[in-house]
Amino acid sequence: xxxxxxxxxxxxxxxxxxxxxxxxxILQERGKEVYHTLEPSENWLGQAVRRSYxxxxxxxxxxxxxxxxxxxxxxxxxxxxxxxxxxxxxxYCDSSTAYQGALLHEPLAEQGxxxxxxxxxxxxxxIREPDITLLLDISPEISLKRVEGRGELSKFEKQDYLExxxxxxxxxxxxxxxxxxxxxxxxxxxVLAEVMKAIEEIL
Length: 203
Ligand code: TMP
What we know:
This protein has nine helices and five strands; from the N terminus they run βαβααβαααβααβα. By secondary structure, it is an alpha/beta fold. The mean pLDDT is 96. Bound molecules: thymidine-5'-phosphate (TMP).
């Protein structure tokens, strides 16, 4: 029996790490074997991605290291799914489409290329398509209020950038029926209830 692949997406501070771990616990209590993972991953490529956050790098390098990490991470995900586990990933392919799609919008538009379409196509060649993706949607104002409380902001955590990332997420959601948009401005128990309802529909 093959397992189900669930991914969580959203801009920084949307609550996906908390909610994805809660979903993992609920499914485990119901007797499912769950592999909870995240991107950037925990292998050496994921560590290289984290190291790059503070480096001056080309936007293309930024895209390709996230992709390199994903290609290796996907092998592990496939293995866990073949063993019948439910795999939950906190971020996956849509993060690159949304974040690096925003970063590369202008340089690629100058070459007549739509960055979102281009990254989506590239993703398709390396990923295992998620069975369901929960997009935890919040406004960048709320996102930044939440992440500011955690200390220093990363290069990704700027309001105008997050507006573009959010718009990309909403655009991908229109194109991909696996993506369910959840209003994450609500209290976390309501978010969790909506997420569980969407997952139960596909189980
Ligand atoms: P995190 O806050 O969920 O740990 O994610 C780390 C940051 O990396 C977050 O700001 C989003 C960013 N990111 C991308 O820009 N592209 C990607 O493909 C992934 C997986 C994450």
